[in-house]
Design a protein that fits this description.
mainly alpha, Substrate Binding Domain Of Dnak, Chain:A, Domain 2, 3 helices, elongated
């Protein structure tokens, strides 16, 4: 989760992203990431469930903002998710390939 927070925080300074975010959105993401990092540093003995709850809290703040940026970029054919997903894969709501996409004889 710590790496996820740092990656999100870094992503708002990258070319192609920083120009698409308002100053308010940048502050929101940066603040949420810093809060999560501080939480991690002060809760080193937290349970897996507590870490997952904290990560979900971070995602609830950041993902709607990041999704706005990339909503218009879909169809660019780049494949993959252009922002950190925190380990969520196609089986967790994404649009990945299915078994029927592969012709195996």
């Amino acid at each position: 989760m710590e790496q996820y927070a740092y990656t999100l925080k870094q992503s708002i300074t990258e070319e192609g992203v920083k120009d698409k975010l308002s100053d308010e959105d940048k502050k929101t993401i940066e603040g949420a990431c810093e809060e999560s990092i501080r939480w991690i540093e002060s809760h080193l003995e937290a349970s897996k469930d507590e870490f997952e709850a904290q990560k979900k809290k971070l995602e609830e703040v950041c993902m709607p903002i990041m999704s706005k940026i990339y909503a218009g970029a879909q169809g660019g054919g780049g494949g993959g998710t252009p922002f950190p997903t925190g380990g969520q894969g196609p089986s967790e709501g994404g649009q990945g390939p299915s078994v029927s996409d592969f012709d195996v004889d």
